[in-house]
Amino acid sequence: MMEFAREAEPAGVVAVGADALAGRQLRYYDFAMAAFAVILICSNLIGASKQATFMLPGFGPVVFGAGILFFPLGYVLGDVMTEVYGYARARRVVWVGFVASAFAAAMSWVVVHMPPAPGWEGQATLAAVFDPAPRIFMASIIAFWAGEFANSFVLARMKLLTQGRMLWTRTIGSTVVGQGVDSLIFYPLAFLGIWETATVVQVLVTNYLLKVVWEIVLTPVTYRVVAWFKRAEGIDVFDTKTDFTPFTTKV
User: Which of 20, 32, 114, 176 counts the most CB atoms within 10 A of its CB?
Assistant: First the structure.
């Protein structure tokens, strides 16, 4: 047991430094990486540009981006990856999501702007749905890149400061920082000039608050998922010797 892990680890789980994972076979890391990329692409592709609304009793209609229903799941999974596998492996996942999103943006642009076949009547509908996608995707991947790295850094550093205790403080604390960075970059870049400025500000603030609340609501789920991954892998990683630069994929 490492000296910085003062709480008893679950049976079969060993606290290790991130450098101890070098060359080690991890059972579920690749699956979690794939899930992360899928969530990111789908949440951007299906609903990021749609304004939705719900009635808040005593307040009235609240406007929010529809993608918020699923996009925060990526941050939850990012928390799990950092908590279980450490910052370096979470960093690699962020880069995989970044490249996958860039490809999706490029593909959507090419498909929309290819000349349609004579007689095909779906071009206007396709353009209406996917034509804003390149701008939204570019804004999203820049915001995601900055926000997710901020999220992972805060979580990894807080894990050392708390010596592995009080998981909820670092999952929520990292989300407050990471989602703040993400929201402040994404909404202005994606929607200023398309939506009214007041709407951009309203959606930014509303979505940020909803994301933080969503993280709080999902905290019990995060606890269970983290515990399951740690038991399955048999490890609990602490970033004692980690290089926290975002500009590498080295693990």
Answer: 32
Quote the pLDDT of residue 65. Answer: 66
Question: Domain 14-114+124-238 class?
Answer: mainly alpha
Residues in the chain: 251
Burial class, 158, CB count within 10 angstroms (exposed 0-12 / middle 13-18 / buried 19+): middle
Q: 108 is written with which tokens?
A: 């959507």
Instruction: Please report how many Cα atoms fall inside a 13 Å half-sphere around the Cα of residue 53, on the Cβ side.
Output: 9
Q: What is the CA radius of gyration of the chain?
A: 20
Q: Where are the beta strands (DSSP E) in the chain?
A: 14-17, 51-56, 60-65, 235-238
| C-alpha 147, offset from chain centre | 8
End-to-end CA distance of the chain: 22
CA count, 13 A, side-chain hemisphere, 138: 11
pLDDT value, residue 29:
94
Weakly modelled stretches of the chain, pLDDT under 50: 1-6
pTM of the model: 0.84
pLDDT in tens, 70-124: 777 887 898 999 999 999 999 999 999 889 888 888 888 889 899 999 999 999 8
